[in-house]
Amino acid sequence: MEQRAVIESQVRVRAKKKRRLNRRKLTINSVLTVLGILTIYTLATIVPAHFKVIEAVNEFMGNLKIMFLSPNVGNDTFSKLLSALGQSIYLAGLTTIAGAFGGFVMALLSANNLAPRWLSQIMKSLMASIRAIPTILWVLIYSVSLGLGADAAVIGLTFHSVAYLAKVFANSIEELPQDTIEALKVGGIGILPIIAQAVIPTVKSRLLSWTFIRFEINFANAVVVGAAAGAGGIGYQLYMASSFYFDFHEVGMIIYLILAFTFGLELVSRRLRAKFIEA
Fold this sequence. Notes:
This protein has 279 residues and is mainly alpha-helical. It is built from ten helices and no strands. The chain has two domains: 2-55; 78-277, MetI-like (MetI-like fold, Orthogonal Bundle), CATH 1.10.3720. It is extended, with a radius of gyration of 27 Å. The relative contact order is 0.12.
């Protein structure tokens, strides 16, 4: 009898799980169906009556052909475009380095195995609230008080970089065994020697990896804020060429320069990862 009761209980549990999964599946399918209907309706109503799809597609393909098959410097010079690219790289590098130092300090205050629990929770909540706001919005927020330009871009990118790196650095630090740190504290070693002699040597490869990833993100952000916040650089040149001059030849040249740097950055990233991180 007891065995039969156990079997019936297991059957009821399985049936309950199956009903829960069916309800979840029905909910997901319903939401996707509604979203699909709304998307189709929006596309049908947002397109003007005089809009000609075939002509628009042909014009779009023609612009792509101009950009990628016949790029040139347009109204600018090649040296000017290279200089603008260098400004974006410098902006990305500066904000990444500043963000790495600030993020490491915040990570030490956020790591559960180093900071008091109450302080760790406060810092993690603060960093999460900063990360919740996109980088471009931070740049625009600072541009209200500082004006459009490089100053707002530097502060905005650095601000978000600190919050981003604080999270990933703290996660790396928290992978250290709590027992090891407690043993060092019991042995009379202060927090600064623990950080210098135990924490940094252990996690430095992961910190370097995350910093380089953030540099790639900041370069993309530097291109965006160059156009959106008037911070200059290659993003501003791209904005002027596409929105003011409508010179798609120059747009193609700028895109190729950005892609060339991105591919070069990926090669350097692989070499650094092989030499310092995976070694």
